[in-house]
Every structure is written in C-alpha cells, then in structure tokens.
Design a protein that fits this description.
The protein is of the alpha/beta class. The chain is 33% helix and 14% strand. The longest helix has 19 residues. The protein is globular. InterPro entries: HAD-like_sf, HAD-SF_hydro_IA, HAD_sf.
C-alpha cells in the first residue's frame, strides 16, 4: 500500500496521566468512566473538527461524482481507473474551492496550546488530500504543525484503524493510550474504536438526531458539542 506520513521524529511520546475532561473546561462528556487515564497523544480529524468550511458540501459532492453510498472515497476507489480518475478530479476541485473559506474551528487552537503545554503530542488524520493538509498548515493553522499527519494517500484510510496504529508505532505507545477526536461517527469513531483508542465525537447537533441508530462500532466513549 502507498503510505504517506509526515513526522518530526520517531521518539516516544512522554508518559503522563491526564484527565480527558481537560480537553475543554466547558464540555460535558457523556461518560465519566474514563475521567482519568493514561494519555500519551491525541489524534484529530481535520475537516469539521480542527477547521470548518461552508463550501465543503458532501451531498453535492456525491451528486457530482455519482456516488450512491455515503462513503464517497470507498465507492470511488472501487471504480475502474478512468471513472475513478474523473471522480477524483471533481473531488479535488471541490476540496480546493472549500479551502478558500476554511477557518479554524472555535477552541481548536486553545486545545492544541493546552496539549503542547502539557507535553502531549498531537497528530492529524484526514480523508482529505495531502495538498489540503499542507494548505491547512501553511495558510490556516498558525501554531506548530500536527506531527505526524496522514492524508488519504495513506491507505487504508479511515474508518480503517491503520492510520492510528501507525501513529502509535511512531509514538511508541499503545492505542489505548491515545484519544481520537473527530466529527464523524462512521469514520473517526469507528476508526478509533477499531484501533482500541478512546474516542471523542464532536457533535454539532447533526449526530444526535440519529445517535440511537449507532452500531456498537460507532458509539463514542465521549460526546461533546464543541471544543469550547
């Protein structure tokens, strides 16, 4: 499999015990069973988690690409080369357009600063393209970059757990010692649960409408409305 990873070093993550509630003083996690646990790293999704863009419309993307399922990348990768190439051209065009209106999610910088101050490494895993992550770091994000970061060029991408397991190898820690934070139950939570990580779902309101329909693999350990 073709894998792309960006990292500063392969050094082991510092070992420290922290409360998962420290992610945001204002949050009200749905579970208190993990109020204290060993946390050696936090992995974030990008779109809809660290940053937001009103221009990234996945419903319109599915329509333009011609997808019949909710998993755009998974379906597109099953197509023949010609159709797949055309589809990725459309996806890339829409992603690049969305970058023009991308802004940092409220509270994301503060959470990152808190982790940096505690000596806890932070990584990024996204189903977006490598070029979008580079743009995010160069143009949108004003702090030190996430390291490592993995884009969809690292395969298999979310919801497979491979990206998280790879990061744990780099950090020299167990999956149970990291937190996966994202806004997608079907991608971020499934990936984190499959890896054995603690999962935190950022729910802006859209998830709660069908939370009762979650399969076991999509149930996050904690659910919060936003970072702040």
């Amino acid at each position: 499999c073709h894998r792309i990873a960006r990292e500063k070093s392969h050094s082991r993550a510092p070992r420290a015990t922290h409360t998962t509630r420290a992610m945001s003083p204002a949050t009200s996690p749905t579970s208190t069973s993990t109020s204290r646990r060993l946390v050696r790293g936090v992995v974030f999704d990008m779109d809809g988690t660290l940053c937001v863009s009103a221009a990234l419309d996945f419903t319109e993307m599915r329509r333009r690409v011609g997808c019949e399922t909710s998993d755009i990348l998974g379906e597109v990768d099953s197509w023949n080369e010609a159709r797949r190439t055309k589809a990725y051209e459309i996806i890339g065009e829409m992603e690049r357009e969305a970058l023009k209106t991308t802004v940092i999610a409220p509270g994301a910088m503060e959470v990152a600063a808190t982790l940096d101050g505690m000596g806890i490494p932070r990584a990024l895993v996204t189903r977006n393209a490598a070029s979008s992550v580079e743009f995010f770091h160069d143009t949108v994000w004003t702090m030190a970059p996430f390291s490592p970061w993995l884009s969809r060029e690292f395969k298999p991408y979310k919801p497979a757990p491979d990206s998280l397991l790879h990061i744990c190898e780099l950090w020299g820690c167990s999956p149970s010692e990291i937190i996966m934070v994202g806004d997608s139950a079907k991608d971020d939570v499934v990936s984190g649960n499959a890896a054995g990580a603690l999962t935190v779902l950022l729910d802006s309101g859209r998830t709660g409408k069908w939370a009762e329909e979650f399969g076991v693999d999509k149930v996050p350990e904690q659910m919060v409305p936003h970072f702040v």
